[in-house]
């Protein structure tokens, strides 16, 4: 159980040490989870008065890194583990939501170095609202002999299908994160250099870009470039805005003169192109990795000390603070699960509803 801690921004404005004493943890063995309200709306309408927070797991290996896609047929959440070495395949961690978050581990055929992921509605299938159990879609970062791209998995049969593994013959670097547009079915994804940075991909041969792929026709287009390391990607609930995180501050070394920034774009021309790139938020801790929105349009991102939450206008409203690098998180109905590699955390009794919860869980409120 965690009370919500109010942040005094005026006190912080003239005291650079303000935050270092507000809440602390032991980063070698983090056990503290705190809910920090930078703005009253965080307590009142985003988390709500009955939110509680706790640690679910603390392991000595990195089971909780990215993705966090839900599958309705199994009522499980699929979380990708962190890259360990080329000789140890990267696990996918399965969290059984019908059974007290119990966890198991799986490796899927042809999935080499999974990273981001989402639920996946193949062309022709009803796009959601719990109508048909979708499959899963993973970003495969590839390795020294396998291309990077997008791979779908049916978690009932554990079979996989390569959906995309090149850009009109050119190799991706290491595809990082993906969302499916709920109306067009297009897959929007980011490509970054982290496979090369971590020694499991050849040197990059293409810029860091944002792509849109139409799975029904194979049409593919670059919709944005100019990133140091394009990473998390997410739509606003009205699908008029696309958010893309740039984790450029971390490459071979950390250098905080590079971006740790979320950019926003207008999605135009019937959901096919981007316009009007602008800076949405620069984070004060680490770099923004996985990004998700809630149905009110607030933007949530995994950052250096937890999950940060901004209004659609870019006001920082609050943090789920854990004091360690947070790669991603997942919305469940009434809850948020937070991934910090070795640890998994839960905030329950949450009022905010993730943008995709209605579609993926078939729980549309009301
Ligand atoms: C921090 O955690 C590590 C690992 O559990 C432990 O060895 C160390 O004593 C802790 N440090 C403090 C100050 O509690
Ligand atoms: C709280 O955030 C809202 C935006 O959601 C903003 O309009 C308001 O000014 C903020 N309040 C304070 C006290 O900063
Ligand atoms: C649920 O799992 C937690 C660990 O995450 C454990 O402490 C607890 O005892 C379990 N509860 C039940 C009812 O199995
Ligand atoms: C994969 O998961 C198993 C537990 O099921 C664990 O023992 C192993 O260390 C994990 N591998 C990596 C590379 O994290
Ligand atoms: C899903 O259901 C919600 C609420 O019932 C509705 O607003 C939305 O339009 C539906 N979406 C689709 C893609 O059918
Ligand atoms: C693309 O990567 C594959 C290995 O995944 C490699 O065999 C091929 O030569 C690469 N193509 C180019 C154009 O670099
Ligand atoms: C798929 O993998 C999961 C996790 O290892 C396992 O529980 C399940 O039995 C497998 N299903 C099939 C059809 O092999
Ligand atoms: C940090 O990055 C900037 C921009 O790329 C570069 O100019 C600077 O030399 C770097 N600093 C260090 C200490 O590497």
Automatic annotation (TrEMBL):
Residues 145-326 form the SMP-30/Gluconolactonase/LRE-like region domain. SUPFAM superfamilies: Calcium-dependent phosphotriesterase (SSF63829). This is SMP-30/Gluconolactonase/LRE-like region domain-containing protein.
């Amino acid at each position: 159980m965690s009370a919500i801690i109010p942040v005094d921004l005026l006190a912080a404005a003239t005291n650079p040490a303000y935050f270092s004493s507000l809440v602390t943890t032991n980063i070698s063995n983090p056990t503290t989870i705190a809910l920090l309200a930078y703005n009253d709306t965080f307590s009142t309408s985003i988390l709500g008065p009955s939110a509680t927070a706790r640690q679910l797991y603390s392991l000595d290996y990195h089971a909780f890194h990215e993705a966090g896609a839900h599958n309705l047929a199994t009522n499980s959440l699929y979380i990708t583990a962190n890259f360990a070495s080329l000789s140890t395949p990267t696990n996918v961690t399965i969290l059984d939501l019908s059974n007290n978050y119990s966890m198991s581990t799986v490796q899927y055929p042809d999935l080499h170095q999974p990273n981001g992921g989402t639920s996946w509605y193949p062309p022709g299938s009803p796009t959601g609202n719990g109508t048909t159990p979708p499959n899963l879609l993973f970003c495969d970062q590839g390795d020294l002999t396998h291309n990077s791209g997008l791979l779908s998995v049916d978690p009932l049969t554990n079979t996989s299908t390569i959906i995309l593994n090149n850009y009109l013959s050119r190799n991706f670097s290491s595809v990082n994160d993906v969302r499916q547009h709920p109306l067009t079915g297009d897959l929007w994804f980011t490509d970054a250099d982290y496979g090369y940075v971590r020694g499991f991909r050849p040197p990059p041969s293409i810029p860091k870009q944002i792509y849109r792929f139409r799975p029904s026709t194979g049409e593919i287009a670059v919709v944005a470039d100019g990133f140091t390391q394009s990473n998390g990607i997410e739509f606003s609930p009205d699908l008029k805005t696309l958010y893309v995180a740039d984790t450029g501050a971390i490459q071979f070394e950390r250098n905080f003169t590079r971006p740790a920034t979320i950019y926003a774009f207008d999605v135009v021309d019937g959901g096919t192109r981007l316009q009007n790139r602008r800076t949405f938020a620069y984070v004060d801790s680490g770099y923004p990795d996985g990004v998700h929105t809630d149905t009110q349009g607030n933007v949530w991102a995994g950052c250096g000390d937890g999950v940060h939450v901004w209004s659609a206008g870019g006001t920082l409203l609050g943090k789920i603070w854990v004091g360690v690098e947070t790669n991603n998180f997942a919305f469940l109905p009434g809850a948020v699960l937070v991934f910090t590699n070795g640890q998994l955390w839960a905030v329950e009794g949450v009022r905010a509803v993730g943008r995709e919860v209605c579609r993926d869980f078939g729980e549309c409120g009301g």
